[in-house]
Design goal:
Blueprint (H helix, E strand, L loop, with lengths): L38 H7 L2 H6 L3 H6 L12 H20 L9 E2 L1 H14 L7 H4 L4 E3 L11 E3 L6 H17 L1 H16 L2 H23 L1 H4 L2 H11 L14 E2 L18 H10 L5 H10 L5 H11 L4 H8 L2 H42 L24 H13 L19
Helix pairs in contact: 1-4, 4-5, 7-9, 8-9, 9-16, 11-16, 12-14, 16-17
Bound molecules: protoporphyrin IX containing FE (HEM).
Protoporphyrin IX containing FE (HEM) binds next to α7, α16 and α17.
Length: 422
């Protein structure tokens, strides 16, 4: 274990989990370049959308030299390499859409990708930790961390919409930073029984959860649903539980059997996993299994933070026992805001997946040879999520599970005051 998070005598510090005070899970100052030896990777990675448009990405990757990964030493070098190899891999697999996928990732890409992944403890597929957390730069280094001053390091097809998609996700991560910063205070206050400090920390967390929802709303300004559904989505798809690639992918030179990995999704963000564990939300059955599996797609230290939060004395039990109105209300606000984020996210998914998928089906029935963006979208994906199940029913299960942690009314609570149970 990297941190002393489960020892009650030591302070719980985010620093030991590589969570920055300023940026949370976002990688501070990602590198823009790799050492010159790796230029053949960057030359291709920087041109992925253009090479895909010309149907030439696979040819370029097939001719790429097999480079040795051992000159990559620093964490940020490894993160950029993982991102670069990740966008190349997604492009390589999905270059011809769902019709002509590949069964083998060539050795010159597969071997270094595998090695870099092993060093980072990440899977060899594009993850949220790559595409959102480690894929940004400021146009003006002194300027603000906002939409106008941010751009991606590497991208995939989808023009402004793909940029918008990853940057809005990044801004949701940023909005959560005050909440993350207050997790140690919550843990410390429960340990010491300091209700005042605990109530204050929980109010900061609920405000931060509201700010996350507000940041998520930006998706409507920066991402076009038809472009997301028709162009972007396939490049985020993986080769696990995916009917388009039922046999997975062989990483040539790594092992002979095919491997299966889920595609990129913000279900791999550590944020909601942390808040769920803090508030006591437990996801069970298939949705729980999927979310638990997504923890293997996070940087290992972030996964450890989630685990260590889950091992702390129960915040919910503590609040329930105190029967203090102010504290109960602060806890209630947190659960309400988390619920609100999930409900809003369901609306987003409905607009960006459910509606275009119904429209695509309709267009295909009316004009089977139609060329519109959404009717070209992969039929095999339709309304399925990264886990392969129906997206909306999965998200509703997860949302409804959140409600289970609302506090029970206690006898000591004044019945004339707000009923905290929904
Ligand atoms: C166009 C925008 C978006 C779409 C279409 C979308 C779609 C999805 C889908 C289909 C899932 C189900 C799991 C999966 O299949 O991987 C999911 C899960 C999830 N997404 Fe999004 N998403 C979007 C934006 C975001 C953003 C910006 C965030 C913020 C970080 C986010 C956070 C989550 C979380 C936390 C989950 C896990 C379920 C939960 O804990 O409630 N999503 N998303």
């Amino acid at each position: 274990m990297t941190a002393a998070g489960t020892n009650p005598d030591t302070a719980f510090s985010l620093d030991s989990y590589h969570v920055s005070e300023e940026l949370g899970f976002i990688l501070p100052q990602p590198l823009k370049e790799l050492p010159p030896y790796y230029q053949p990777w960057m030359d291709i990675a920087l041109r992925v959308p253009e090479l895909l448009e010309a149907h030439q990405l696979r040819d370029h990757i097939n001719k790429m030299p097999l480079l040795c990964s051992s000159f990559l030493q620093k964490h940020r070098e490894l993160r950029l390499a993982h991102l670069a190899l990740g966008v190349m891999t997604m492009g390589y697999v999905w270059q011809e859409g769902e019709k002509d996928t590949v069964e083998i990732l060539p050795r010159n890409l597969a071997v270094p990708y595998w090695e870099v992944s092993q060093l980072l403890g990440l899977p060899p597929i594009l993850t949220h930790a790559d595409a959102a957390l480690a894929n940004w730069k400021k146009k003006d280094p002194e300027g603000p961390f906002d939409m106008n001053n941010l751009e991606l390091l590497l991208t995939l097809p989808g023009d402004d919409s793909i940029q918008g998609f990853f940057l809005v996700t990044l801004l949701v991560e940023l909005a959560a930073v005050p909440a993350l910063r207050n997790i140690p205070t919550v843990i410390k206050s429960v340990r010491s029984g300091d209700c005042e400090a605990l109530a204050r920390a929980l109010e900061v967390i609920s405000q931060s959860l509201q700010d996350m929802t507000d940041a998520l709303k930006l998706i409507h300004d920066y991402v076009n649903p038809s472009v997301f559904y028709g162009t972007i989505r396939i490049y985020l798809s993986g080769w696990k539980d995916n009917p388009i690639m039922p046999n997975g992918l062989i990483y040539e030179g790594v092992q002979t059997a095919a491997m299966e990995f889920s595609g990129g999704s913000a279900a791999q963000s550590s944020l909601l996993h942390c808040f769920d564990e803090l508030l006591g939300v437990r996801h069970v059955k298939s949705s729980g299994r999927f979310l638990t599996r997504m923890r293997n797609y996070m940087p290992p230290v972030h996964k450890e933070l989630i685990q260590d939060i889950s091992m702390q004395p129960s915040l919910r039990d503590f609040v329930q026992q105190q029967a203090c109105e102010k504290l109960s209300l602060a806890f209630h606000h947190c659960v309400t805001k988390l619920l609100h984020f999930r409900s809003y996210h369901i609306n987003v998914v409905s607009r960006f997946i459910t509606v275009p998928s119904a429209r695509a089906r309709q267009l295909r029935e009316q004009r089977p040879d139609g060329k519109s963006n959404i009717s070209k979208a992969p039929i095999g994906l339709e309304e399925r999520g990264t886990g392969g199940s129906s997206v909306i029913s999965f998200l509703k299960t997860v949302r409804d599970q959140t409600k289970s942690v609302f506090l029970l009314p206690t006898p000591s609570r004044d019945k004339s005051k707000t009923n905290l149970q929904h």
